[in-house]
Amino acid sequence: MAPPIPLLAVRGSDGTSLLSGPPSCEQHSSFQRDSRPSRCVSFSRDGTLFGWCNGLNVSVVKSSDGSIVSTLDLPKTSLLDFSPLNNVLVTWQPYSKPKDSAQGEPNLQLWDLQSSQLIKALYQKKVESWCPCWSEDEKLSVRSVNNELHFYENNDFNLISNKLHMQKVSDFVLSPRGLPSKVAVYVPGSKGAPSFVRLYQYPVLGGPTAALANKSFFKADRVSMQWNKKASAVLVTASTEVDKSGASYYGEQTLHFLSVSGETALVQLQKNGPIYDVVWSPSSTEFCVVYGFMPAKATVYSLKCDPLFDFGTGPRNAAYYSPQGHILVLAGFGNLQGQMEVWDAKKYKQVSKPQAPDATHFSWCPDGEHVVTATCSPRLRVSNGFKIWHYTGSVLHKQDAAPGSELWEVRWQPVPEGSFPVRSIRYQAAPSELGTTQAPPTQAYRPPALRHLPATPSSKLHEEELPQNLRPGEKSVSKSALKKREAKKAKQETKPEPEPPSDSAHISNSQSEPSSGDPETDKKIKNVKKKLKAIEELKDQQASGKVLQKNQLEKLQKEDQLLKELEELQIGQ
From which domain of life does this come (predicted)? Predict the structure, then answer.
């Protein structure tokens, strides 16, 4: 049986449409394009249903044939979502209160999708955490109400089955899968007390020993919490609005790890600066962090928070694993130039390096072969449109917004897990009429008056750090390092064989090193040999899996320079 072709929902000022996925990217034959601008669009978790609000009503249709499932008269709806098993449709509109009324109408509504009947109307003034969270079997749902968590069972929203109340629960995340369900909660610090994140397993929510894990920390105005796919661990990015040291305009961030087995840790990052992105691998066994002052570093860590692979430095601020976890894309969007680095996530080998300037959106197609990049309003109101790429760097489809119109959103249709098996990774660009957009090599600026002169090596503002394997017992060698080794080997092979020393010379050499007769030169030779010996020791440490500091890596890069200096000193003796 052939796998399904994922759909792509496109929402803009000229209406809402569904496109058949790559490579054709044509209008879906069974969906009648809605020419009215939509406020929101959403697919169900399994992709079988598609819903949108066009300012008149909320419509839900089957993705396969476009047949109508439900139509609701809710013109002000701004957000909508589906429960995991498609039993409940959730709609939200901004809360409003008439002048002559003490309280407005409930603005969060839960609907039975089969009968289109209202299950429950609730108040939800803030847009943050607007939608209730469900377990994957829908036996448990939870929402935040006045700094406490309310738990409901079997979609019965008239009865609160359990509550979690602490000093002030500011945020929570329910585990995506795995039974029994678990919940991570964040309580901000106050009056000198630290902030903390705790993990609970439902229904054990009370008592001093109820928490599965607890991690407290200072320097946190807000947090972002992410469960891995297997619901075995949580990553917590804690951020402050202001960096009191003055080192960063973006505040200060720290990354914490919590496991349901009770283990907690502060993830040790190898460069100072902001944390731009943190993503779990779909395998749940490792995660990638993009961090540090530009050019930013990207590192993959294990569940023990040990670094496994360092991608070096580059212009990047985001990371995206493919749905199958076999490919990792490191990208620089926003105020960066849209460079994307596509890596084999198992062999840590770079596949391609395309560029998508002005992109404001990136997402993987469920097939793990294609991605979409888009330039959307209101982030950018010019050059709106989207491109479908193959991960090897080829542009397969390009669609620009019509003159005078805007693109607001593009969204892939989800598919059930396992619909697309992992394919072997290709390193040759896929055929395309639109070609590829590999990033051109950047060159240093040269004033017009100097452009007729030969280029000279220029000093760089930032020293680039090369990728390196940090797994114990493994060592990755870059192409430049291999070239240097080969050149050094060739030089030694072409060097004439020295004449065998006489007996008297042998005796004097065994007793002491040859002297140049100049104490200053002898001192320089001794210092250079001492530095080379230290470099050899660093090489051994690196080969054994130890992570070297930046200053130690800089010493390794000076080996060739020191060897040349030693040779010149010895020739001049």
Answer: Eukaryota
Burial class, 91, CB count within 10 angstroms (exposed 0-12 / middle 13-18 / buried 19+):
buried
Amino acid at 130: W
358 is written with which tokens? 């002005």
Q: Where are the alpha helices (DSSP H) in 49-151?
A: none
* Residues whose CB falls within 8 Å of the CB of residue 412, separated by 6 or more in sequence, listed in order: 6, 7, 8, 9, 21, 363, 364, 365, 366, 372
3-state SS track over 292-345: CCCCEEEEEEECCCCEEEEEEEECCCEEEECCCCCEEEEECCCCCCCEEEEEEC
Cβ neighbours of residue 304 closer than 8 Å, sequence gap 6 or more: none
**Which is nearest to 119 in space by CA: 151, 88, 84, 162?**
88
Strand-by-strand arrangement of the 468-469 sheet: 275-280, 286-291, 296-302, 307-314, 468-469
Q: For strands 162-165 and 407-412, give the pairing.
A: unpaired
Burial class (CB in 10 A: 0-12, 13-18, 19+), 340: buried
Distance, in Å, from the CA atom of 239 to the CA atom of 219, rounded to the nearest integer, reads 7
pLDDT > 90? residue 418 = no
Which is it for strands 395-400 and 407-412: parallel, antiparallel or unpaired? unpaired
State the pTM of this model: 0.76
The Cα–Cα gap between 474 and 485 comes to 19
The residue behind tokens 């840590």 is 348
Q: Helices 519-543 and 559-571 sit at what angle, rounded to 10 degrees?
A: 150
Q: What is the rounded distance in angstroms from the CA atom of residue 338 to the CA atom of residue 380? A: 14
Interval 432-486: pLDDT, tens: 656 556 555 556 666 777 776 766 555 454 557 777 777 765 554 444 554 555 5
DSSP 448: G
Contacts of 408 by beta carbon, 8 Å cutoff, 6+ apart: 11, 12, 13, 376, 377
Sequence-distant (≥ 6) Cβ neighbours of residue 371 within 8 angstroms: 320, 329, 362, 363, 364, 365, 388, 389, 391
